[in-house]
Amino acid sequence: MTAKILDGKLIAQQMRAEIKAAADELKARGVTPGLGVLLVGDNPASRSYVTAKEKALAEAGMYSEEVRLPATASQDEILGVVRVFNANPLIHGILVQLPLPDSKMEAAVIEAIDPAKDVDGFHPVSVGKMMLGLPTFLPCTPHGILHILKRSGYTTDGAHVVVVGRSNIVGRPLVNMLSLKNALGNATVTMCHTRTKDVGHFTRQADIVIAAAGKPNTITADMVREGAVVIDVGVNRISDPATKTGYRLVGDVDFAPVAAKAAAITPVPGGVGPMTITMLLFNTLESARRVAGG
Ligand code: GUN
């Protein structure tokens, strides 16, 4: 079997056109969706994510405001920026790019974000609501993955989905969302992680494998059954002197051999990444809509 390539870039373009049309309607009613972005330090990957997010916001006709702080910024300085964003009526969503240079600050910084502006869906209030299936902002990468599957015609209903990775940003929320009794859920879910004894034992039983481990070649061809759907969340920079930048991006999946076996697979880049940004636009629009009433 040769896998169909699930073109996240194309699905993202379609969704962004829908979001832009809705944003234009809201603007005609006097509300421009706005996002406050805080970047602390100069991690190159974080810098390029933030640039891509701001470009997408501008293309959707949304407003964005960026604050950059040095890697040495204190927790109080970071909290100060979050509080200014919380109080600013032009800002409907707040994005603090993670990881922070000092990861010990992350919990306090996330908790300082007004849950009404938590378009990342990382605040404990948002996470609790997500887990209970209550209306809330859903975290962008897991939500984007569920939309790739849905728009590509692969249902999670009754499927066995194996998620490899247990991060707060992807694996853990994904497992919760997939287990909910709703149109994007209804899956039988298995979670594997770094302490799982034999990951392949589980992934070989999966209808859908989602690799979110943050490590190249986590999923090799022997770990995937013929005809499975494979979603690759990994974005790993590996050095490649032949490229202009000196590196190239690879996912967590050993792409070519797995693609020869799978029914469908997301590429890296051009798979999950563009959908993450799209769901950020979606949540920012939704937050502005709530403010505008309706
Ligand atoms: N770092 C990696 N992914 C994300 C994300 O979705 N949001 C934020 N704020 N930081 C991230």
Architecture overview:
The chain is α/β, with parallel strands linked by helices and 294 residues long. It has two domains: 87 residues, 3-Layer(aba) Sandwich (Rossmann fold); 135 residues, 3-Layer(aba) Sandwich (Rossmann fold), CATH 3.40.50. Helices cover 40% and strands 16% of the residues. The chain contains ten helices and eleven strands. The strands form three sheets. Strands 1-11-8-7-5-6 form a six-stranded parallel β-sheet. Strands 3-2-4 form a three-stranded parallel β-sheet, sandwiched between helices. The structure holds guanine.
SSE layout and pairings?
Elements: E1 4-5, H1 8-28, E2 34-40, H2 44-59, E3 63-69, H3 75-87, E4 93-96, H4 106-112, H5 124-132, H6 140-151, E5 160-164, H7 171-179, E6 188-192, H8 199-203, E7 208-211, E8 229-232, E9 236-239, E10 247-250, H9 255-259, E11 264-265, H10 272-292
Parallel strand pairs: 1-11, 2-3, 2-4, 5-6, 5-7, 7-8, 8-11
Antiparallel strand pairs: 9-10
The chain binds guanine.
The site of guanine has 9 residues, from strand 4 and helix 6.
